[in-house]
């Protein structure tokens, strides 16, 4: 079984202690796991079922809270522990080849022309600034909850990336506005040369 990001998140939680899927979902919300892993209730339960079928986790009991339905409690197996630790080693040691859309957009920037490119980048800057402000609020909440900092590293990484993206975008806008970026010369008809 290939460990998806959600499967890694489940095994990571079960590495801490046995729990039922509803508790996993609560912890993922509390730790803002949804910022780097797509978490939906249906996909969480499907992932738990797949991990159990592949013997990476096992049922260790049930819990009942008041009149609520019984909940199945899972624990990580040695096979699951080995698999998630190996995946962690690879993820931490090997830079992944990712293909962010912004990089592809930059490859097309000269197609828009300088003024339109600046306008679109200013829209991006505004959205990123809003995101950075939201990130700060969430980081403050996470600190206030006094979670172990090891459980917020993914969030710190994501917010640092967004802050860098904002800084890069602002510098790019400034470079474009002050003609520090070489642009293709206009063609005879007055439009930008799109061949170079």
From TrEMBL:
Instruction: Output the Gene3D superfamilies linked to this UniProt entry.
Output: Winged helix-like DNA-binding domain superfamily/Winged helix DNA-binding domain (1.10.10.10)
Q: Residue limits of the Transcription regulator PadR N-terminal domain?
A: 10-83
**TM annotation in the entry:** none
The region annotated as signal peptide is none
Output the Gene Ontology terms for molecular function. Answer: DNA binding
PANTHER family according to UniProt: TRANSCRIPTION REGULATOR, PADR-LIKE FAMILY, TRANSCRIPTIONAL REGULATOR YQJI
Task: Specify the superkingdom.
Answer: Bacteria
- Its protein name is DNA-binding PadR family transcriptional regulator
| Record keywords | DNA-binding
């Amino acid at each position: 079984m290939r460990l998806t990001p959600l499967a890694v998140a489940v095994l990571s939680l079960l590495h801490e202690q046995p729990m039922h899927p509803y508790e996993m979902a609560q912890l993922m919300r509390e730790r803002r796991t949804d910022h780097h892993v797509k978490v939906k209730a249906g996909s969480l339960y499907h992932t738990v079922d797949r991990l159990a079928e592949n013997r990476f986790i096992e049922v260790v009991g049930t819990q009942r809270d008041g009149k609520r339905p019984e909940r199945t409690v899972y624990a990580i197996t040695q096979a699951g522990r080995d698999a998630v630790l190996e995946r962690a080693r690879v993820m931490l040691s090997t830079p992944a080849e990712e293909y962010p859309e912004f990089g592809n957009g930059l490859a097309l920037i000269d197609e828009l022309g300088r003024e339109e490119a600046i306008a679109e980048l200013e829209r991006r800057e505004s959205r990123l600034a809003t995101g950075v402000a939201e990130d700060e609020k969430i980081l403050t909440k996470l600190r206030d909850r006094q979670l172990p900092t090891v459980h917020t590293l993914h969030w710190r990484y994501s917010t640092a990336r967004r802050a860098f993206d904002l800084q890069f975008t602002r510098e790019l806008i400034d470079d474009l506005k002050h003609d520090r970026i070489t642009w293709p010369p206009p063609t005879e008809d007055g439009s930008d040369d799109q061949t170079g």
